[in-house]
Predict the 3D structure of the following.
Amino acid sequence: MPGPRFTPLVESLPATVPFVGPEAQERARGAPFAARLGANESVFGPSPKAIAAMAKAAGGAWMYGDPESHDLRKALAAHHGVAPDEIVVGEGIDGLLGYLARLTLGPGDVAVTSDGAYPTFNYHVAGYGGRLEKVPYREDHEDPEALIATARASGAKLIYFANPDNPMGSWHPAETVQGMIDAVPEDTLLALDEAYIELAPDGTAPPIDTANPNVLRLRTFSKAYGLAGARVGCAIGHRAVIRAFEKIRNHFGMSRIAQAGALATLADAAWLAEVQARVAAARARIGEIARANGLTPLLSATNFVAIDCGADRARAQAVLEQLVAHGIFVRMPFVAPQDRCIRVSCGTETDLDAFEKTLPTALSAT
Amino acid sequence: MPGPRFTPLVESLPATVPFVGPEAQERARGAPFAARLGANESVFGPSPKAIAAMAKAAGGAWMYGDPESHDLRKALAAHHGVAPDEIVVGEGIDGLLGYLARLTLGPGDVAVTSDGAYPTFNYHVAGYGGRLEKVPYREDHEDPEALIATARASGAKLIYFANPDNPMGSWHPAETVQGMIDAVPEDTLLALDEAYIELAPDGTAPPIDTANPNVLRLRTFSKAYGLAGARVGCAIGHRAVIRAFEKIRNHFGMSRIAQAGALATLADAAWLAEVQARVAAARARIGEIARANGLTPLLSATNFVAIDCGADRARAQAVLEQLVAHGIFVRMPFVAPQDRCIRVSCGTETDLDAFEKTLPTALSAT
């Protein structure tokens, strides 16, 4: 058929999606989920102050958002102890990872990640023709030394490392991460995804050092701050690296409502503390439910818990399918041996009541 | 300095922004604008139903937006008489133009546009290494025949054509546009930007024909629908072309609040009719104000009016600077001879009172 000419790279790409959304699953099963515990969203919601700010901003949605996200960058800079021009605000970490892949990767350029880590990073790398080198997890943790060694051996331009990790919920202490940072090759960029950092123990994040051009810290309002649906994240790093985003980003891509919500939640430390407490309680309860059913919960520094179902992928998959069939939306890791687990996000008490009630049924049906 | 390696293309790009936002101008002048008439936003606001829907959705912003934008695509499909898989929803036309450039353009590939048309298109073309061929306006209208001839001569992969046009507000009737569509080379894609179509006379848009893989219709909620700050647009076309977006788009890039607002406004035909009436009245009044000051308003099928200041760029620039200095945010075309004009967005009565009061002062000071 005659028609437009796509690039050779685009012709070679599959039409793929990193994740199927819960709404699509609900449409397929013809019923809503009773508990939405699969996407590591914050069921405790956004800060009431953020909700109020967004509701107020809705009437002003006729105005484009400030393309500089000036006020939000200023607040983030104060929050993190850096300068505003050491921060770029973007459409969630997903959007920022896309920009980052575009900035660094041409066809054949190497990016290193952990095998089974964030699929959206892999999607963006493939989307710019990059070549992924994948490093195995080590005892359910990402392996900093192996990531660095692989980056060095392959001449990688980009390393992706999440701390805490998704999908396992594991984490490394700040000293380990600092050791990794110190070992990054001098022409490589480490994308340090700290999406869950507000939910991790003190001492998980090394100090932010914007004098180092080899590290970019990625933070988001999608997890602890409960604003996944607003799409706000930021990257913090050396101003020369931050400036590069100005060359390619969608300058008018930020929602004005999202900017208002992020600004309001950043000022509401009490809400963050409350979410942290609720997440900790929910993690504990998910662990209890798992153990009561003969399963093994993994330690988590995030708002989800990976639960070892005690066998292989087939077993975990069967448990997941039964949970989903009974209205409990959960997900699971993609790669062995992590795929012996299901991954359950922290829920409200009602959500976890439903999980507690359904899990024995799901297990007995598998 | 050691540091990350960007792609050669990125190294070659300037850190640029298609437009400086009004907020940055306000920060520079140290005072807010009295009237925000420079960005062709809809000062009449979003539909009250959209505001209510977004305010309600704010509490649910902890959930990611549906990556398929299923409900919104379904509603848009019904609205436009096409199938849902002939529509892709994206982060405004800006976001969709970025995806489109990425889908089609590699280094040196040609895209054709009008000289002085939408800078954000040019930004995206440059950002993917494409080569821009620019065609002059003809009597303040984009020139369909010249665009087609240039595309044919240059082997262009992409043509950008806005109808109605920005920044001049001029338009071509549907028959002319259909003639252009019929003449698109069989391996070229025409991006037909109809951002302002709801504000144009009946008979401006040719029928949507999704059997034709060579045309993509771009529509937005940013103009007549008053949701610029929510970031929602869509592209309508052949399903094979639409499917290509699935390979590269940021699947979880849509704000859940924006999806709710767009869905609500699409169902509120009464609000659209009211905006159309207010825009028509504001256009007329801007014309009267211009004429009363000895200037010549151009006919417009949009929510703004280009005003011929009667001389050259220097004159228009001086008038613009005076208006801005007196708190009236307006913009102007970039390229001669269109840059003899200033561009004034439709305002509320209060906005236009301020414009009416300020214009004589601005003119006498130049």
